[in-house]
């Protein structure tokens, strides 16, 4: 893989870590977590459990398919993110059920 060199104004380089963090951020948004920048008007967070579950499933698939091919740090990051998202999903599902 070639080394990514960012230039001013370019999008950040994509690594495994930034890819996983991007998916994690999407899942958090689907779970209704407020991720707005300080000072912006915060709209009421909308929970979409189906999209959150789909994103968590994608991360689980990545974990399975990359088993044995990640650095220790990458593996720990993925395990920790999945744990956190699963716990948040359970909480959101309990809060939105009738």
What attributes characterize this protein structure?
mainly alpha, single chain, 98 residues, 3 helices
- Total beta strand runs: 0
**Helix/strand-derived class?**
mainly alpha
Helical content class? 55-70%
What overall form do the CA principal axes indicate? Answer: flat
Helix and strand succession?
HHH
Head-to-tail CA distance between termini: 49 Å
The number of helices is 3
Arithmetic mean pLDDT: 87
- The percentage of residues in β strands lies in under 5%
Rg, rounded, reads 16 Å
Low-confidence stretches: none
Largest sheet: none
Please sum up the structure shown.
With 98 residues, the chain is mainly alpha-helical. 58% of the residues lie in helices and 0% in strands. The longest helix is centred in the C-terminal third of the chain and has 25 residues, at 72-96.
Overview of the molecule:
- This protein has a domain at 47-98.
- Helices cover 58% and strands 0% of the residues.
- Helix 1 runs antiparallel to helix 2 (49-65), helix 1 (16-30) runs parallel beside helix 3 and helix 2 (49-65) packs antiparallel against helix 3.
- It is an all-alpha fold.
- The protein contains three helices and no strands.
């Amino acid at each position: 893989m070639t080394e990514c060199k960012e230039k001013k104004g370019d999008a950040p380089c994509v690594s495994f870590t930034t890819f996983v963090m991007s998916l994690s951020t999407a899942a958090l948004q689907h779970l209704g977590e407020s991720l707005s920048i300080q000072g912006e008007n915060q709209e009421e967070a909308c929970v979409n459990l189906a999209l959150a579950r789909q994103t968590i499933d994608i991360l689980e698939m990545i974990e399975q398919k990359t088993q044995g091919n990640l650095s220790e740090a990458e593996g720990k990051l993925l395990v920790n993110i999945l744990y956190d998202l699963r716990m948040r999903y359970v909480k959101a599902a309990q809060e939105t059920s009738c």
